[in-house]
Design goal:
Strand order of the largest sheet: 9-8-7-6-10-11-12
Bound molecules: nicotinamide-adenine-dinucleotide
Radius of gyration: 21 Å
Strand content: 15-25%
Order of helices and strands: HHEEEHEHEHHEHEEHEHEEHEHHHH
Shape: globular
CATH architecture of the largest domain: 3-Layer(aba) Sandwich
Largest sheet: 7 strands, mixed
CATH topology of the largest domain: Rossmann fold
Helix content: 40-55%
CATH class of the largest domain: Alpha Beta
Number of helices: 14
Structural class: alpha/beta
Distance between the termini: 37 Å
Number of strands: 12
Oligomer: single chain
Number of domains: 2
């Protein structure tokens, strides 16, 4: 599979590989190979200079056999319908692996939020929410943040939706909200926490001691920072960190807290006193026990996969490893914890947020974290058992587990009308 394939073709190819292992009949495979519904909407919005500009937005709803569609909304100039369709399929798998009662959805608007004022962003977001309001809802499709969207956009969408549907507060229509309007404690750290839990479980299976073991982290944003904090809490030694502006390394360990303060102050990890700078690509190739790609897609490719020395690669980012690289890592006995398992902590706590909203009750952070731990540990162990039983890499094992869970629900529910 080439790295330039479009994401939807990649997603269907992964489905086909897992469908073969699952001995899935063609009809079921065909249902899963395309989303149940893809809505394209025109999003006209008045710019600050008085002109009207029309943006294009999408919402893809892949499968709802196990529950309402769930998935983020991204704002990016390169959003395409095929990307959104692929991401919605991956969300179906991610929710099934985490064993939370959701199907998969994804949305997006083709726009560059960095070029928009706050008011323009709000008008575009509200108009998009208005345009998709009839197909989302607390029991049908529950969006969340994704690339370049966050609590602010979720609040506007919730407010628009609530105003349209009877004008009472409906916090359960969307997750990733600020705490003051029904967000959950523990949501910020959830993805990094999920990553650290999968690393802990993987280390147990492989008989690796994490105390003092070196870890390298590519990307120091939300996912990377909290993965770093929590892996360090488990006793691991963070020896290298990179971000878009540079990479740093210290064999004896980097203080994660000091590095976070440095990044907050300077906007970059470079220049941190307690480490020296190294070439970006070296971070992936360092001698370490765990490597956490937490930045971009397509970082471990067939050209550098052979140089990865880590025993465990925990994919905090979505799609950091290309399919060719997957085969090389598997051949070298490196355990890759795939994105749809490793970063499932985010959607799991989104589910907890929704549960809290539905009941209009709020949990302590300790309760959120403990439930997350038990969900992600079970998910890891379920995938690992498939990996051993079928002797396939963890990515195929994950997709296989997901497909089996989704197909079981589809079969039991039947086809009607
Ligand atoms: P973020 O924007 O907070 O952080 C991204 C980080 O990557 C930044 O530190 C940035 O400087 C760094 N980066 C960018 N280009 C880089 C490069 N070439 N080399 C090294 N670092 C680079 O984003 P995030 O929320 O942490 O998301 C990171 C990845 O994790 C994405 O793939 C995202 O889809 C995935 N993810 C995040 C969440 C979540 O809850 N945050 C959930 C699931 C998946």
């Amino acid at each position: 599979m080439s790295e330039s394939l479009n994401p939807f073709e990649v997603a269907v190819k992964q489905l086909d590989e897992a469908a073969k292992l699952a001995k899935l009949d063609k009809g079921m495979r065909d249902i899963l190979a395309s989303p149940n519904r893809v809505l394209t909407v025109a999003v006209p919005a008045r710019m600050d200079n008085g002109e009207i500009k029309v943006y294009t937005g999408f919402r893809s709803q892949h499968n709802s056999a196990r529950g309402p569609y769930k998935g983020g909304i991204r704002y990016h100039p390169q959003v395409t319908v095929d990307e959104v369709k692929a991401l919605s399929m991956w969300m179906t798998w991610k929710c099934a692996i985490a064993n939370i009662p959701y199907g998969g959805g994804k949305g997006g608007i083709i726009c560059n939020p960095k070029e928009l004022s706050e008011n323009e962003l709000e008008r575009i977001t509200r108009r998009y929410a208005y345009s998709i309001a009839d197909i989302i809802g607390p029991l049908t499709d529950i969006p969340a943040p994704d690339v370049y969207t966050g609590g602010k956009e979720m609040a506007w969408i919730m407010d628009t939706y609530s105003a349209l549907k009877g004008n009472y507060l409906q916090p359960d229509v969307i997750t990733g909200k600020p705490l003051s309007i029904g967000g959950s404690l523990g949501r910020n750290e959830a993805t990094g926490r999920g990553v650290s839990i999968t690393v802990r479980e993987a280390a147990k299976k492989l008989g690796i001691k994490l105390k003092g073991a070196p870890v390298a982290i590519q990307g120091f944003g939300n996912a990377g920072q909290f993965a770093a904090v929590l892996l360090a809490e488990m006793g691991m030694k963070v020896i290298a960190v990179s971000d878009s502006k540079g990479s740093i390394h210290n064999r004896d360990g980097i203080s994660v807290d000091s590095l976070r303060s440095h990044k907050l102050k300077n906007g970059a990890v470079s220049g941190f006193q307690g480490a020296s700078s190294i070439a970006d690509k070296e971070v992936l190739e360092l001698d370490c026990t765990v490597l956490v790609p937490a930045a971009l897609e397509n970082q471990i490719t067939k050209s550098n996969a052979g140089k990865v020395k880590a025993k465990i690669v925990a994919e905090a980012a979505n799609g950091p490893t290309t399919p060719d690289a997957d085969d090389i890592l598997f051949g070298n006995d490196i355990l890759v914890i795939p994105d749809i398992l490793a970063n499932g902590g985010g959607v799991t706590v989104s589910y907890f947020e929704w549960l809290q909203n539905l009941r209009r009750e709020y949990w302590t952070e300790a309760e959120v974290n403990s439930r997350l731990d038990s969900n992600i540990s079970s998910a890891f162990n379920d995938v690992y058992n498939n990996h051993k039983e079928f002797n396939v890499n963890m990515r195929k094992a994950s997709t296989l587990l997901a497909i089996n869970r989704v197909v079981e629900a589809m079969k039991i529910r039947g086809l009607w009308p």
